[in-house]
Amino acid sequence: MSNRAVQPDAVPTPPNPPSPAPASTSDRPARSATTADVIVVGAGPAGSSAARHLATLGMDVILMEKQELGRDKVCGDGLTPSAVRELVRLGIDTTGWQRNTGLRVIGGGHRLHFPWPEQASFPSYGMARPRALLDRDLAEHAAAAGARLITGITVTAPLTTPGGRVIGVSAKPSARVTYPGIDRPTDFTAPLIIDAGGVSARLATAMGRTKDERRPMGVAVRAYYRSPRADDAWMESQLELWDGPAGSSTLLPGYGWIWPVGEGLVNVGLGSVSSRAATTRIDYRAVFAAWMRNVPASWQLTEDNRVGRLASAALPMAFNRKPHYADGLMLLGDAGGMVSPFNGEGIAQALMSGRLAAETAAQAASRTSRAGRERALAQYPAALKAEMGGYYTLGRVFVSLIEHPEVMRLCTRHGLPRKHLMKLVTKLLSDGWERRGGDSIDHFIQLLTRMVPAA
Ligand SMILES: Cc1cc2nc3c(=O)[nH]c(=O)nc-3n(C[C@H](O)[C@H](O)[C@H](O)COP(=O)(O)OP(=O)(O)OC[C@H]3O[C@@H](n4cnc5c(N)ncnc54)[C@H](O)[C@@H]3O)c2cc1C
């Protein structure tokens, strides 16, 4: 994908300052079908969160998604309390979504339960929801607030000025595009463009923002199964995967999860992480098959009970693509490499980046000079860094330790039974630590994240 330069006179003028309250559609002047205050590419958690928050702040936003709503998405579907906190901020109705009370961790001969603690900033429960449903709900939630959602349209290239500022996108509709009057390749323009297109980050890549190979990268595979334990209240993590009886057979690479997601289903997957974006040469399908032959029969994870395909995808971690804002283009979620190196979680971070991007964009729109707007937009990477920078630096150290199987084995065998240590590890791994205040464990993590340079 290459970017197309357009003449400077095509640079869209910045929007008028947004009204403080969301404007009803009847209050607004007639809008152009192809211009907006902000264009968001990708209606995953990051894009839909941004679009919802932007629309709520009174901004005119076009949200473009290449797939149709309800498409399948390769994910573990797990929502920690940190993700639930963002869902609360979005104001989405989660009635009927599968809830869980904590983590069950199995490894090193131990089987321990770590309930999610109730804290000032986090609820005492997590959730899980198949991504086909979660992403549909989030996109519809954005549209309900006034975001103009277009599905069935693929963004093919950024539009840039000769000076390299991104001022729009070229997009190609499919036969199933959901937008009146768009039936051929069309250019859309806006003063701010958001790449929320996931790990492929097509706009960012076209603008030369390549991934940093020195940052960690994960790979994971997952499948859905019907299971009699689909209403289990715990998210189960298996820190050791065996190809026979536990403890007396061969240890397989990676860690596994079995998470009840509702609808009578569990999401089963395994992943591994390396401190650099090098290929691991692991045959994940073979490892998955070997693991499945040895999971406890009570789960009934048989081929007959498998629903849909076994699929894999990459997890871009620890801010492996930057800058998160420059030249009119913001990167959110996986496009900005925001998956946690501690646990492979990316939904909470995607939702959070959408919120921070929207707040920044609304501030920028209220500035009256170009320089003022740029200063305001620069607050987005600064906010990400303040929230996650030191934490992700620690995460990179964590990955470089646990990628050595002998270190992982030592931690599993000797660390798991230590209650206080595991309380710390659970908070650290699930991003469930208070940024301000909290207990002695929160204070300790705050101190650690301040001692290291922000990622
Ligand atoms: C196997 C696996 C298990 C995982 N398990 C978990 C988990 O349990 N919990 C968790 O929090 N995270 C998990 N993750 C990570 C999580 O899936 C991602 O971090 C998350 O999806 C990032 O959201 P996003 O909105 O940034 O990107 P995405 O969810 O990838 O959304 C990007 C959207 O952009 C659209 N798009 C892409 N390109 C274009 C284009 N050119 N034009 C128009 N639209 C476009 C795509 O169709 C997609 O809908 C897992 C990942 C994997 C691979």
From TrEMBL:
Any one Gene Ontology molecular-function term assigned to this protein's record: FAD binding
Comp. bias regions, Low complexity: 22-33
Composition bias, Pro residues: 11-21
Region annotated Disordered, chain positions: 1-33
InterPro entries (alphabetical): FAD-bd (IPR002938), FAD/NAD-bd_sf (IPR036188), Geranylgeranyl_Rdtase_fam (IPR011777), Geranylgeranyl_reductase (IPR050407)
SUPFAM superfamilies from the UniProt entry: FAD/NAD(P)-binding domain
FAD-binding domain location: 36-350
Domain of life, per lineage: Bacteria
Protein name from the UniProt record: Monoamine oxidase
UniProt source species: Actinomyces slackii
